[in-house]
Design a protein that fits this description.
This protein is α/β, with parallel strands linked by helices. The protein folds into three domains: 191 residues, inorganic pyrophosphatase (n-terminal core); 135 residues, no CATH class; 117 residues, Diaminopimelate Epimerase, Chain A, domain 1. Helix content is 45%, strand content 16%. The protein is built from 19 helices and 13 strands. Strand 1, helix 2 and strand 2 form a beta-alpha-beta unit. The model has no long low-confidence stretch (mean pLDDT 96). The structure holds cytidine-5'-monophosphate. Cytidine-5'-monophosphate binds next to strand 12 and strand 13.
Length: 469
């Protein structure tokens, strides 16, 4: 992956611009279909702000990737232009059958692998079609931004939303960003829309008193500190810090002392690269009044994620399009989602011994102890907190209604480099047992019939261990 692929991606973005521009005006009625998560919300907001500027009437729907019958229903709605964001590549057959066949225009702006057939009424932007990896080089919101910045330079302050989407999709690595993301972050800094610093990467660093920030931390989850207010208070007192100040108010010297004290508490975990980088590193803050919401970008993402977790993606969207009144409600949601995640991680920590090991994966059954929509995030946080060994992919299984199980899988970039692709493996194994799955090489999900769990796990193990990845 190099400059040539990034150029191809930019050219592909310009082709989408040529497709979209003639439709930005007149009486186009647009429908945006986007994913419920931070990346999907940020991507939809970037496009919405563009459409709004050109007086294009639009309607937004946040959903997990649509099933074929849902695409069929969508095709009956009276819109001229359908824009799929953070999905679409996996639904292209249904899009052809039910939307393009009706002579409607479609734009797919996605970073999931899929198919990219040509059609005169279809334009798409997907990093996988340009030799880039959609799991790390650019997110859906980065792709949407890459289009709108070519429509008009006035949309440039929205680059912060593109970086937020990438962070939301865990496309920031120990060494920073790669591919298009790297270009976008550098440009955002050069243009003065983003500032970088160094510090504790905890959610709440600008929003909550330090004791509360520590109590609620799940990224990383710090055993003995997370969920334990008296331990947090005593740590802060020992260091002589004001418990009611935020981390940013305490200043960088205090942050360093707190970091060292936390490292001292966690024992051997302090040598875990994963844990250390999750706790401490580059901080990003928004430096533009064009975006409302928290200034710290990780907190901004946490707000959008909280809206997703509590099935209120529309509220996150309202914040991302600049609605100041939506902020207060969204911040309250952040608080309750942090409490829920703390409880879920607490459950996991007390059930770590129930992880089962197979030759090619580690799995755990959550039953209904954790909301099935949160399982993937719980696994990601467990990995980042050094709670589970990451020598093979981890899989979480949760009840999803009486008939179905929700499966989430997480892997690492290192395993992906060895050719292990959980997205492909889940798609295959789920398909064999009558379910449906998919996703990226390092993060994927599936739904399968409940009674076929053991068969699914055996198949998944086989697919992951075989040459057929
Ligand atoms: O639900 P969870 O967070 O575990 O999902 C992980 C990833 O898998 C998400 O990026 C989601 O978009 C993707 N996915 C997919 N196709 C599916 C199910 C999930 O691409 N059928």
């Amino acid at each position: 992956m190099g400059r040539a692929e990034i150029r191809r991606f930019q050219q592909a973005a310009e082709e989408v611009v040529s497709f979209l521009k003639p439709r930005l005006g007149g009486d186009t009625r647009a429908k945006i279909i986007s994913h419920t998560d931070a990346d999907g919300i940020a991507g939809a907001a970037i496009l919405a702000r563009c459409l709004y500027t050109y007086n294009v009437s639009f309607n937004v729907k946040f959903t997990r990737p649509l099933k074929p019958d849902e695409v069929a229903e969508l095709g009956k709605e009276g819109h001229d232009l359908f824009v799929f964001i953070d999905q679409g590549s996996g639904q292209i057959e249904a899009i052809h059958k039910f939307i393009l066949s009706q002579k409607r225009d479609v734009v797919v702006i996605d970073h999931h692998p899929g198919e990219f057939p040509e059609h005169p009424n279809l334009a798409y932007l997907n990093p996988h079609a340009c030799g880039l990896n959609g799991a790390k080089d650019v997110s859906a919101s980065g792709a949407v931004y890459s289009i709108v910045e070519h429509i008009d330079r006035s949309f440039r302050p929205l680059v912060g939303l593109a970086v937020a989407g990438a962070i939301g999709d865990r496309q920031e690595f120990f060494s920073g960003f790669t591919g298009v993301n790297d270009t976008l972050v550098k440009r955002a800094i050069d243009l003065g829309f983003l500032r970088v610093g160094e510090g504790l990467k905890l959610i709440g660093r600008t929003l909550s008193p330090v004791v509360e920030c520590l109590r609620l931390t799940t990224r990383p989850y710090i055993s003995g500190i997370s969920g334990n207010p008296s331990a947090c208070r005593s740590l802060v007192d020992t260091l002589g810090l004001s418990p009611s100040s935020t981390l940013v108010e305490l200043g960088s010297e205090a942050e360093r002392r707190l970091r060292d004290a936390l490292f001292a508490r966690v024992g051997s975990l302090a040598t875990s690269e994963e844990f250390c980088h999750t706790l401490w590193g580059t901080t990003y803050s928004l430096a533009t009044e064009d975006l409302v919401g928290p200034r710290d970008l990780r907190e901004y993402v946490a707000v959008l994620d909280a809206c997703r977790d509590l099935q209120k993606s529309e509220l996150g969207f309202a914040v991302a399009v600049g609605d100041r009144t939506a902020q207060t409600e969204a911040l309250a949601l952040l608080n309750s989602s942090q409490e829920q995640m703390l409880e879920a991680l607490g459950w996991l920590v007390s059930h770590l011994d129930t992880f089962k090991l197979t030759p090619s994966l580690r799995y755990i059954y959550f039953g209904s102890a954790v909301n099935s929509a949160m399982v993937g995030e719980v696994l990601s946080l467990a990995m980042e907190s050094g709670l589970v060994t990451t020598d093979r992919p981890i899989v979480g299984i949760a009840d999803a209604g009486a008939e179905e199980l929700k499966i989430s899988a997480r892997s690492t970039p290192g395993l992906a480099m060895l050719g292990i692709n959980v997205g492909r493996a889940l798609a295959r194994a789920a398909g064999i047992v009558g379910g449906k799955g998919g996703g990226h090489d390092v993060a994927a999900a599936a739904r399968i019939p409940r009674e076929r769990m053991n068969e699914f796990l055996a198949k998944l193990d086989q697919v992951l261990s075989g040459g057929d990845r």
